[in-house]
């Protein structure tokens, strides 16, 4: 995948004595992307004073912040990481996080591939996957059953580095032709996640789920993420944006098996995440090609940096 973009606070533009202050937001990368990164730089050091066990907290700007956050913590006793995770999910705007991944202190939670590696090595699906529903949801999130309502997914990827649950990564995935006629492209995002781009004709994902769960080149991945064909799997920003803004944990997780343990429901791998654009979701805003060309042709006249 391509390199991550450099976070630049100076990419926010302002006119002196503006009569209508506003911020450009939407499909990344826009101004809110850089403003959010600046807020994190200011707030995380304060957070660590209040919660000394927290090493770092990162809300991914590629996803629009609230759909995905990761936290690294120091654990003094077994399962303490869950306490810190639930504590953060009760804090201000962080309480609207849809997916929270918790790791040990050695993981760079600002790097999604490092996060994927931690999930691969340490996530025990029977004890480390927690689905909370129904919950309040961010007003901008349209994936739940109704406005301001949705669900939460917590993944605890904390464990002994000397004795991980898994060590060797899964094999390289097969080409799309081996996985069915609706599959257009296949890639990985670290060892835990297999990305599968499909066309609009797929329909219900059950047949594809079974194919991915049985194929020797795909069955060992913990998660199979299916994405619509407007998503370039080689673009990490657009992949994360589409993935985490187009699925609701309660409705769109399709595990290989559901097992009841007492009063708990446990999900068995591989788990398919249906992150396609779905009927009822708003279409992404797109630039008018004529306007875009006119702006680019005149860019040197505006006195703005390239």
Brief synopsis:
About 25% of the residues lie in helices and about 25% in strands. The protein has 8 helices and 10 strands.
* Count of DSSP H/I helices: 8
* CA-CA gap between termini: 24 Å
Strand order of the largest sheet: 1-2-3-5-4
Helix vs. strand class: alpha/beta
Extended strand count: 10
**Average pLDDT value?**
91
- Strand fraction equals 15-25%
Quaternary arrangement of the chains shown? single chain
Helix percentage range:
10-25%
Structural features, described:
25% of the residues lie in helices and 24% in strands. It is an alpha/beta fold. The strands form 2 sheets. It has a 5-stranded mixed sheet with strand order 1-2-3-5-4. The chain has a 5-stranded mixed sheet with strand order 6-7-8-10-9. It is globular, with a radius of gyration of 20 Å. The relative contact order is 0.12.
Brief descriptors of the model:
single chain; 306 residues; five-stranded mixed sheet; 8 helices; globular
What's the helix and strand layout?
Blueprint lengths: L30 H20 L3 E6 L8 E6 L6 H9 L10 E5 L8 H11 L2 H4 E8 L12 E9 L25 E6 L4 E6 L7 H9 L8 E6 L7 H10 L3 H4 E9 L2 E11 L14 H9 L9
Parallel strand pairs: 2-3, 3-5, 7-8, 8-10
Antiparallel strand pairs: 1-2, 4-5, 6-7, 9-10
